[in-house]
Amino acid sequence: MTAEQVLEVVGLSVAAGPVPLVHDVSFRLRAGEALALVGESGSGKSMTALALLGLLPRGVAVTRGSVRLLEPGDPSPLDLVTAGGRTLADVRGRRVAMVFQDPMASLNPSITVGEQIAEVLRRHLGMGRAPAARQAVDLLGAVGIKEPGRRAGDHPHTFSGGMRQRAVIAMALACEPAVLIADEPTTALDVTIQAQILDLLVRMQDELGMAMLLVTHDLAWSPAPATGSRSCTPAGSWRRAPWARCSTIPRTRTRRRSWPPRRRTPCADADRRPSPAPCPPPGSRRPAARSAPAAPTRGRIRATPRRSSSSGRAPGACAAPAAPNSTSSASSANRRRRHHERS
Question: What residues does 30 pair with on adjacent strands?
Fold first, then answer.
């Protein structure tokens, strides 16, 4: 028995005035299915996610297409593109929830975390203040926050980045929605916390049986929870494929250009390359470096005898022999001859 379809997007296009941002997006989501929207920055992934809930910024609008939300047993689906503001307010958080990139921007800094989660329960489920507060504590514990009873009374700035993202996930799953949209939920987190958040999303999806739409630019983690993939380019063109095929065969120029380099394999002539010199063991002395032979010189260099410091030359200095001068040699010989004649 196949799962029931909960969301259908047909020919969705988004533009900012005359500038197209997203062009002709179509996909379907069934209960328990996870779909990944993969693309580089600026390709329109977040705009697509915001368009599903009518959260586009001012000046950006849906120009064409439909977003139909299907309720089990309801023959007439709800089109979220043409729905009014009051209808969308009832749908957001109750039937379709969203986890944004920056959890600090999603939380009110002046209200405690537990009160913000309880507000969602009171708004959509009509719970009283005390039951909603107890349910908020249970939700914080379900997403892995330690001491949820105490942390429910803390403000968002006292939480770490990973804890704030867990609190936002607890708020999104408070009413057990049919569709969860996660827009880059691990952008500002380190690798270890990213893995924990992804494991949390997969676990909550299995427990609630909801459909999940993952928006990411990171090809490293999107195949883990996603059963399908949808790649996007800055030009706004989209392509759907199973994840195994989408992640191994980059068919567009943009994806080939941004594709991470594959791991290099040893070449056939690796044995011909000189191997690096091994490092000496600890405590051993480094061998003396051998100097290159000196270039041959024309004249011979002799060491001058050591002289006193008054001569102006440093002891041990070397001097090249002076070139012979015929004039000075002749005058010396004449002086010696005249001296011999006088004596």
Answer: 5
